[in-house]
Amino acid sequence: LAWWSNYPTDDRQPFVLAPGVDLYGPLGIGWNESRGRWSGTSFSTPLVSGAAALALARNPWRSADDVIRMLTDAVDPAYDTWGRPSEFGRINLWKVVTQ
Question: Is the pTM of this model over 0.85?
Answer without folding.
Answer: no
